[in-house]
Design a protein that fits this description.
Elements (H helix, E strand, L loop, with lengths): L20 H65 L8 H8 L2 E4 L2 E9 L2 E4 L2 E2 L4 E2 L5 H6 L7 H9 L12 H5 L26 H5 L37 E2 L15 E2 L5 H9 L2 H11 L8 H4 L2 H7 L13 H10 E2 L11 E2 L5 H5 L6 H12 L19 H7 L3 E2 L4 E10 L5 E9 L6 E7 L1
Parallel strand pairs: 5-6, 7-8, 9-10
Antiparallel strand pairs: 1-2, 2-3, 2-11, 4-11, 11-12, 12-13
Helix pairs in contact: 1-2, 7-8, 8-10
Length: 452
């Protein structure tokens, strides 16, 4: 047998390959395959990490925007609480102006703003819920005057709200609603939101909301771009809010008096309490207390009739010796007191200091000429109307006419809607908080909060 000396390499003939060559090629391919897989995995992990980082940055931006919007809500709450307990005497616009002056603010890397829409365009500050007619207090005659209201709308709305099951001529009760493809019961009580109006026969989202599809009281970009996005709009730079521009369910009656104290109930108060609180003499206080104790006593009668006339109604002798209330005393009486005040929520009245001029014209008790005269008088008063009695300064306003409308008008508001937008400074991401603030109780409470 032939052997190869140690340390010598065997000679390989030309054209002959070593037997391990294919294994080496396979190993190379395997390595390349592993590298390729690793590259794909690395790219996937990198993309996932980038996406997570982007999502994290967006989430952080939304958090900054949210807390900026929340800061706006807290600011409005604080201002409203302070004004409720420390009102500016004789200035009906003090709170509204204060809220407007503090309608912008900044936090670290974020800012906030509070705005609402009016007939003249966007305005800084909160929206006064009492600037609209409360649908739970409205009559069929008032509802019929609202623009675009359907013919059967007033009867259908009142049937939805009233507790009975008696159908009005153009209305509908439970029999109709239970017979629908997707049956439901009517409320048979006060409406809880303006969106609930869409459940009433003859109503529709388009009629109720108009262009204000999210009911935030502002003209958003998608509500001013024509047919580019929902909802349909005319892109005229003005918000057409449908029936929601004139009607509300948010306003609430009652609350503290104009002085910041609890309102005095004349039906249970003593003559001494009335004298001290209202600023009347002992005989005048006796008449006020005696009349308030009669059946069906109404505050409006303190406008319609003189105190001497009310003394006769209350059976008080020697009425001629009683001095009639002055205008100033009447104003304080309406600002500080009421008759048979009851606990619980009542629909709010229309604030003549903040309502639009056209809204007054939708009250059948007020003619267009009288509405114009009221707005003209309001415009001449830098501090607005401080009492409902101030309306006697309006030409053509008589005590009898004022007494008829005193039950639906007021000069003070309890509920405000704050559309607060927080914006992240780095990304431009926005978060909106729509907060309904009710100061009929102290401290003020958030009745409703919506986050967008």
């Amino acid at each position: 047998m032939m052997t190869t000396p140690r340390g010598c390499r065997p000679r390989v003939a030309a054209g002959v390959t070593i037997g391990r060559g294919p294994a080496r090629s396979f190993a190379t391919l395997l390595v390349l395959w592993v590298v390729a897989i690793a590259a794909v995995v690395l790219a996937s992990v990198s993309a996932s990490s980038a996406a997570q980082a982007s999502a994290g940055r967006e989430a952080l931006a939304r958090v900054r925007a949210f807390w900026a919007a929340r800061a706006a809500v807290e600011q409005a709450l604080a201002l409203i609480d302070f004004d409720t307990e420390n009102p500016v005497d004789g200035d009906a616009f003090a709170l509204i102006e204060d809220l407007a002056n503090h309608a912008r603010g900044e936090l670290r890397d974020a800012a906030w703003i509070i705005t609402h829409e009016t007939s003249s365009g966007e305005r800084l500050g909160v929206m006064d819920a009492h600037a609209k007619i409360n649908i739970n207090l409205a009559t069929a005659e008032q509802l019929a005057l609202i623009p675009d209201m359907s013919e059967d709308g007033p009867d259908s709305i009142l049937d939805w709200i009233d507790a009975d099951d008696d159908t009005r001529p153009l209305g509908a009760e439970s029999g109709y609603y239970l017979g629908r493809p997707f049956p439901y019961e009517p409320r048979n009580g006060p409406m809880r939101s303006i969106a609930e109006l869409e459940l009433v026969i003859g109503m529709s989202p388009e009629l109720v909301r108009g262009e204000d599809w999210n009911l935030n009281g502002r003209l958003d970009e998608n509500e001013d771009d024509g047919d580019v996005s929902w909802p349909p709009d005319n892109a005229d730079g003005r918000l057409d809010a449908g029936l929601s521009a004139y009607l509300t369910t948010a306003s609430v009656d009652g609350g503290l008096a104009a002085s910041g104290e609890a309102r005095l109930d004349l039906a249970t108060a003593t003559a001494s309490q009335v004298s001290q609180r209202i600023g009347v003499d002992a005989l005048q206080a006796d008449v006020i207390v005696a009349y308030a104790a009669t059946s069906n006593a109404q505050m409006s009668e303190f406008i319609r009739r003189t105190l001497r006339q009310l003394a006769q109604t209350a059976g008080i002798q020697n009425a001629a010796a009683i001095r009639n209330l002055t205008r100033e005393q009447q104003a304080v009486l309406f600002n500080e007191a009421g008759i048979a005040l009851t606990a619980g929520t009542k629909p709010g009245k229309l604030n003549i200091n903040t309502c639009e001029a056209e809204t007054l014209q939708y009250l059948p008790e007020i003619t267009p000429a009288l509405a114009d005269a009221i707005i003209l008088e309001r415009s001449s008063r830098p501090n607005g109307f401080s009492s409902i009695v101030d309306l006697l300064d309006v030409p053509a306003m008589t005590p009898q006419r004022l007494a008829r409308i005193a039950g639906i008008l007021d000069v003070r508001s309890n509920v405000f809607v704050a559309s607060c937008r927080g914006r992240d400074a780095r990304s431009g991401i926005e978060v909106e908080i729509i907060a309904t603030i009710d100061r009929s109780t102290v401290p003020a409470v958030l009745k409703e909060v919506r986050i967008r």
